[in-house]
Every structure is written in structure tokens, then in C-alpha cells.
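Render PTS cellobiose transporter subunit IIA in 3D.
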Amino acid sequence: MDIEMIVMKLVVNGGNARSTAIEALRAAKAGDFKKADELMEEADTILKEAHEIQTEMIQNELNGNKVEVGLLMVHAQDHLMNAMTVMDLCKEMIDILRK
């Protein structure tokens, strides 16, 4: 798979994980904690896929297969880190709403 496809997978998975976590938070706000939990689990699965891609890229670089860091790569990493932050915040907010 070429680097553009890999980077786009990071962008898509990061965006999907973030959107799903926000959807889970909205479900929790509506009092549907079962749906919120299911959506957070789905978001976590999506995020893990993106993280596996990132880990593979890091391992490849450590093995001497460096990837050019361009704007697209920075954008992909931004999506991934944003998704991770939103996930953490949504987990905390759902726990607060649950009480």
C-alpha cells in the first residue's frame, strides 16, 4: 500500500473515531447509556485500527524505512491525536453523566 493510502486511512479512522465518540456523548446526554457504551466501544475499535497503522509506520522507520513527512502526514497525525483527546474527554463526560 502506498503512503498516500496509509495516510488517508489514518485521517478517515481518526475522523470516524472522533465522530463516533461525540455520538456516544450525545447518547449519554439523552440518557441512553447502553447506546453510549456501544458507540464508545466502536470508536475505540476504530481508533485502535488507526493506532496500529501508526505503530507499523513507526516500526518501519526504526528499521530504516523512513517516510517523508509532508503536510498530509502532519494532517493525519493531527486527526489521530485529536481523536484520542476527544475519546478521553468523552469517556470522562459520559462517566459524569452516568452519576
